[in-house]
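Preliminary data (for renewal application), MTE complex.
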Amino acid sequence: MIGVVTSIGFDIKPKAKQTATTAIRCQVWPRTYLRYASKVSMKKSPLSTSEAPSRYEHITSYNNFYEFAPGAGDGPKNNSKNFKPRPWKIKIDGNVNKPGDYDIDDFIKPYALEERIYRMRCVEAWSFVVPWIGIPMADVIKAVEPTAKAKYLEMTTLMDTGRFPMQKTDLLQWPYLEGLRLDEAQNPLTLLAVGLYGEVLPAQNGAPIRLVVPWKYGFKGVKSIVRIRFVENQPRNTWQTMAPSEYGFYANVNPNVDHPRWSQARERRLPSFIPNHKTEMFNGYTEQVEYLYKGMDLRKNF
Ligand code: MTE
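Predicted structure:
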């Protein structure tokens, strides 16, 4: 269960100076597999933060991915070394005019890839800045033509105990599932990420494709997606199912609404052990997203 942060599972020794700060400069990143870098628009997105990205090591060594290991730390990295993100199918269905079953590479191909440097704030009060590579979700939604009945998107992770060993346990209710309201999914910030730092997503970050909604707590970012279903009713997301008094559907970053077991006022920007950042409303994305929640009580809709 997402709990009080007690374990720091990665190496926090100071390392040599960071050599790449964006996916584009990452063309000199020594160990990377530059599958996407050449396809990414060189234009800096106005939606990217000007904050410096966190180091690759930190983004890929401190993860939450219960299909590989419980709790945040280096378990997902260590336990996913043999994970194979191909072959991979993704299904789009529900209330759309153009449903489909795609091979992941055919699914990605028609869309322009963008780099988006976003803050990422976990509900456990740790944070990063990540240079994602991805497809704007709004482009996918436009292409599949939702019908008038489509009010929400429900996204699920692959169920495969061969590839995800912890799915043999009852640690969570599998498969991991998340949802967004259609208008949240259409917001220009919402991204389907297929890479970071110019290379394909490492397994521990949700290969081959995961959701990124930077104004929401990290648990909304469902990893290793195989299905996007357009539905009429609000889906019940995994963490809401596991602990409904602690985790809601909306999960907007909100420093004024504490988690029942800890404060959300501050966060520790990894690799810090101690809170060293003030948490901002909507993780600093108020201007882009506040229209979505006009008139809503965000204490009730947490
Ligand atoms: N998706 C799946 N399928 N399984 C998970 O356990 N953990 C969530 C989210 N997506 C999770 C998941 C949580 S709690 C967080 S904080 C983020 O992934 C962490 O993303 P990161 O490891 O890339 O930082």
